[in-house]
Amino acid sequence: MIDFASLKTISTDDSKRLETSFFRPPKKEKPHSEKKKKLIIISSAAIAVILVIIFLVNFKVLILPEHKKSYKAQTIQLLDKKNLSSLEFSEPRLFATITGGIIYFDVPFNTKTGFTVNLAKKIDLSNAQLVVLLKAPHNEITVDAILRDVNFFSNSRKPLRAVASNAREKETYVELGFDVQEDASPNLNLVHINQLRFYFSQKEVSSMPVIVKNIIVKKLR
Predict the structure, then answer these.
(1) Would residue 166 count as lying in a domain?
(2) Are 100 and 214 in contact (CB under 8 A)?
(3) Which of 153, 155, 144 is closest to 198 using CA atoms?
(4) Do 194 and 132 share a structural domain?
(5) What span, in angstroms and rounded, lies between the C-alpha atoms of 135 and 133?
């Protein structure tokens, strides 16, 4: 049998020890942990700013408004994947890139530069207008177009020429039209064109950015 008389009662000190041992209130967050959180946030923000600066220094961000004009069925869009075989930039070349079908490059002062469009299959440019859709330039720029057929004949001695004036305040895009002439070259076969070269030149600034959004062939009849 248990002798209950011999059992000791729990004193006030014992109850306090139990309370502190098993029923401790949750620890309050120390002030230095709040400082640590703020330091992490500030450090993360600083790293993000540095990364953005590095990105802007090494890359150019293009924000282009949409060109809402739709083209009819009888037009051919040469920068479309099914029509374009390859695209090569000309020398001398400053910054130049093609992204998502949009061509971006810089034109130096008083020097011709541009790009060559190699087509996946020959196209018929007889009785047609060639249109270069470009973002309206800030200054006047001259564009020469040279056509080459499957037999390597071209109009290099008599290129098609168009001039884009300063249209910054009038419109976002300029449709630069080249009327393909039957007498562009005596040997050039306009029915079997498989390459187009475009040369841009300007005499206004040390370097002018040019953005070409599309190249279109419009059949006149």
Answers:
(1) yes
(2) no
(3) 144
(4) yes
(5) 7
Residue type at 34? E
Say yes or no to pLDDT of 161 above 90.
Answer: yes
Residue 219: how many CB atoms within 10 A of its CB?
A: 14
- Region 138-159 average pLDDT: 93
User: What number is the average pLDDT over the span 165-179?
Assistant: 78
Distance CA(78)–CA(103), nearest Å, equals 12
- Same domain membership, residue 88 and residue 44: no
Q: Match 């130096």 to its residue by tokens.
A: 108
Assigned token pair, 145: 């177009």
pLDDT above 80 (res 71): no
Greater model confidence, 136 or 42: 136
Rounded CA-CA distance 11/152 in Å is: 110
121 in the same domain as 49 = no
Structurally, the chain folds into a number of domains equal to 2
Domain of residue 46, residue span: 30-59
pTM for the full predicted model: 0.68
Q: What is the DSSP letter of 5?
A: G
Per-residue confidence (pLDDT) for residue 88, from 0 to 100: 94
Provide the CATH number for the domain around residue 168. 2.60.120.260
Do both 158 and 104 map to the same domain? yes
Residue 84 half-sphere exposure toward CB, CA atoms < 13 A: 19
Look at residue 183 and tell me if it is in a domain. yes
